Structures are given as C-alpha cells and as structure tokens.
C-alpha cells in the first residue's frame, strides 16, 4: 500500500509524515509537495504536486493507493485546487481519500466553510471511497499569540464568551494517521475537536497563571480587532478574516463536545495548559 500526503511540507503535513514513519515502511510513504527541494529532510519519497498545476498532480499520484488531501492554504482558490487533486486521483485509480475539512462544514457560518462544502461535494461525486476529517480550530491559532499577549499585557480578540473546542496540530495529525493506517473509515465523517472547551478569557487566565502576571482578555469589536491585527503586520484581508472567525466563535462555531477526536486517536487531546506552556518557552 502506498500512502501519499499533499502539502507535506506544511506544519500538519510534516507531523503526519513523521507519525506515519513510525507505523509503516518508509518506502510506502509519498510526500506530495510544491517544491521537492524543500522536502529533502522528510526522509521519504517526494514528488512535485502543485494544487494549481493538474499536470503535476497526475504524475504525482501514479501508483498511490491512499491519499491524504490536506486542504490548500490558499483561501479563495481551494475549491478549484482540491478539484484538481480529486480529478487526478480518479485518473490514477486512487482507492481512497481522506480530506481535512472544517468542523461542522455542512452548516458552519465560518467564511472558510463554503470551499470545504464544495470539496466534500466533489468527493461524494467522485466515486472514490472517502473519509471526511472535519478538523476544528488548531489551539496554536490562539497560542501563537501568547508571547505577544504577555508583552502587550493583554490577550485580545472578538470571541466574547464563546466556547472553543480546539486541539493541537499533533492531535489532528494522529487522527489522520489513524484513518490512513486502519480500516473501517470509508464513508465516515468525523467531527474533530478538543476534549476541553475554553473561552478566550479562560485562555488569558491560563497565561496569567503560568506567567504570574495579570494578562486579562480584552474583547474588541470586530473592526477594532481587525485593525489591531493589521497594525501588527497581518495582511489586511487576513486580519478581517481572523476577526470574523472570532465573531463566529462567539456564536458557537468552534464548539463541539462529541469527543470524536479523542475516541478516534485513542487518547485525550492535548490540554490547553500544555500548549500554553509550550508557547511560553
């Protein structure tokens, strides 16, 4: 069985590759990357595979049995890029596809959801057995801001008291590897989220506890939060996206208490305190 992973040099892709190497022979793993020169450290076969260049995808997927389609990072182009991958998979006789979608993609209010819904529809129409890994928010999406919050004396956002059931990239990588290396997942949709739900005020309290400093949570209007992010150097369009996703979190878009992730991976998801501690090191 040959397993291929798209976006293999991304943060999630690299984790999946490393975890796979511990479970299956290295010669069964194929890293699909835009620039193979940046993937020499992965220790597995690498093939050029550009989401936007169908000709590279058709070559890259030759002989592949199982594919992990990690969603593209290019918001606004994802639906087309993912369709290119699925079409190439059909032409090469790929036997199953696991796709990293979005938590509750079928009814999520997040602006990111439309492209995921489109890809899920493409998979259903493809005739290829598939598994939907509807990943929730990465805890790192928030904890990457911990050093800045400590330096600035507050953690800012627009999520009000919305509960967030995030998990780490490592947790989501474990889920992907489980689906790639075990049977019985075809046709299934997994709503993947952390065991522990928290508010951004809870996150700020954990930062305060670990640093011994008073780091409050300051909830801002969406426009003000977007402006603050832009002032920190975040591109304006992305800043507005981040702020809007926080606003959706305020209404429950990032909450899920089904614990399907920990059930799938066979262990609890990483505690928030652990991820905060890592961010503070």
Automatic annotation (TrEMBL):
Gene3D superfamilies: NAD(P)-binding Rossmann-like Domain, UDP-galactose 4-epimerase, domain 1. Pfam families: NAD_binding_10. Residues 7-182 form the NAD(P)-binding domain. This is SDR family oxidoreductase.
């Amino acid at each position: 069985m040959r397993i291929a992973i798209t976006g293999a040099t991304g943060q999630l892709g690299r984790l999946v590759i490393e975890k796979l190497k511990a479970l299956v022979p290295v010669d069964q793993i194929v890293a699909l990357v835009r620039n193979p020169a940046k993937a020499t450290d992965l220790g597995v076969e690498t093939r050029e595979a550009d989401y936007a260049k169908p000709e590279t995808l058709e070559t890259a997927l030759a002989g592949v049995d199982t594919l992990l389609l990690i969603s593209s990072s290019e918001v606004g182009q994802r639906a087309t890029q993912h369709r290119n991958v699925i079409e190439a998979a059909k032409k090469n006789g790929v036997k199953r596809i696991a796709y990293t979608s979005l938590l509750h993609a079928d009814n999520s209010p997040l602006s990111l959801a439309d492209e995921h819904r489109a890809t899920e529809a493409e998979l259903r129409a493809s005739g290829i057995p598939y598994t939907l890994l509807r990943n929730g928010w990465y805890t790192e999406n928030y904890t990457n801001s911990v050093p800045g919050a400590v330096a600035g004396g507050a953690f800012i956002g627009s999520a009000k008291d919305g509960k967030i059931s995030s998990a780490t990239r490592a947790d989501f990588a474990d889920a992907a590897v489980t689906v790639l290396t075990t049977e019985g997942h075809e046709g299934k949709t997994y709503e993947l989220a952390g065991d522990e739900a928290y508010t951004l005020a809870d996150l700020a309290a954990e930062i305060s506890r670990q640093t011994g400093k008073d780091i409050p949570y300051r909830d801002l209007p969406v426009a003000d939060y977007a402006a603050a992010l832009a002032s920190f150097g975040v591109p304006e369009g992305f800043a507005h996206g981040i702020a809007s996703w926080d606003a959706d979190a305020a209404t429950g878009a990032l909450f899920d208490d089904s614990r399907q992730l920990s059930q799938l991976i066979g262990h609890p998801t990483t505690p928030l305190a652990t991820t905060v501690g890592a961010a503070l090191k």
